[in-house]
Design brief:
Elements lengths: L1 E5 L3 H12 L3 E5 L3 H9 L14 E4 L4 H9 L13 E4 L5 H13 L3 E4 L2 E2 L1 H7 L2 E5 L3 H14 E6 L6 H29 L4 H8 L7 H12 L10 H15 L5 H18 L8 H8 L9
Parallel strand pairs: 1-2, 1-3, 3-4, 4-5, 7-8
Antiparallel strand pairs: 6-7
């Protein structure tokens, strides 16, 4: 297929690379020229894509505003796509926004797959993501080569956009709360003489563990906050969760608490660090030094 991937961050780059490995012609696009140049050097197409010849557009940008800009903004790609092309939209967005994008794409003769992703940068690079997808049978069929190249598991959640984004909101609620809970537990343990390494070795084998604990706690133990997923992701994603919850008349106090922790981390200047850096909020408040921090 001829595929354009918009957004070459840690997830989008891995997806684009997986598509190249699968034998597709792939154009990588990003506002940052660095990853574009790197992708071209690693097998991406060397020129700019001709929208009329593209068969699929994979949108792996930050949020709804960026998704809308890519698809329908001043230089939006959808009006130039040929009939039958498919948009695979992977950003975390409200379900209502996904339904609106699907309707606008349909008016242009373009399929839209509501396809949020999960699994992190490593699984994106390996083509082993989980995709929470919803769309028409035609959208699924048009997107199948993209899904086959980038995902280990595709959950078909409905025949119209919206359910994929709803499920992603559920996932992000749990993921954000679990990261904050891991940070709280790890630093609480430190107040009781439990070293971070000991915490990880023991709790990862006990009932209190979680995927997020096992994935993020090592970053704290190593004192390495190179962003795999940044703190700044969570005010956005947990904010979407709370917006949806308020619309449903649903109280989500754990989400509100986790959101407050990530907002505090961002206010401390940690927004661009790995989201495990939320542990620094707890550490500062308790007068603790995390691994790798100076005395």
């Amino acid at each position: 297929m001829r595929v354009a991937v918009f957004g070459l961050g840690s997830m989008g780059y891995g997806m684009a690379a997986s598509l190249v490995r699968a034998g597709h012609q792939v154009w990588g696009l990003d506002v940052n020229p660095g990853p574009v140049a790197r992708f071209r050097a690693e097998g991406g197409q060397q020129d700019d894509p001709d929208p009329a010849r593209l068969e699929a557009v994979v949108c792996v940008v930050l949020n709804a505003a960026q998704t809308e800009a890519v698809l329908f903004g001043e230089a939006g790609i959808v009006p130039g796509l040929g009939a039958g092309a498919v948009v695979v939209s992977c950003a975390t967005v409200p379900p209502g926004f996904a339904r609106d994008m699907e309707a606008r794409c349909a008016r242009a003769g373009v399929h839209y797959l509501d396809a949020p992703i999960s699994g992190g940068a490593a699984k994106a690079a390996a083509g082993q993501l989980s995709v929470m997808a919803a769309g028409t049978p035609q959208a699924f069929a048009a997107a199948r080569p993209v899904l086959d190249a980038t995902a280990a598991t595709v959950f078909a959640l409905g025949d119209a956009a919206g359910p994929g984004s709803a499920m992603k909101a559920v996932n992000q609620l749990l993921a954000g709360v679990h990261i904050a809970a891991m940070a709280e537990a790890l630093t609480f343990g430190m107040t009781q003489g439990v070293a971070p390494r000991q915490f990880l070795d023991v709790i990862s084998k006990c009932a209190g563990t979680s995927w997020m604990l096992e994935n993020r706690a090592p970053h704290i133990v190593d004192g390495d906050y190179t962003p795999r997923s940044s703190v700044n992701i969570w005010p956005k994603d947990l904010g979407i969760v709370l917006d949806i919850a308020r619309g449903a008349g649903f109280d989500a106090p754990l989400t509100e608490t986790a959101l407050a922790r990530f907002r505090a981390a961002a206010a401390m200047g940690l927004g661009a660090e790995d989201d495990a850096a939320v542990a620094k909020v707890y550490a500062r408040q308790a007068g603790l030094r995390l691994p790798g921090e100076d005395a």
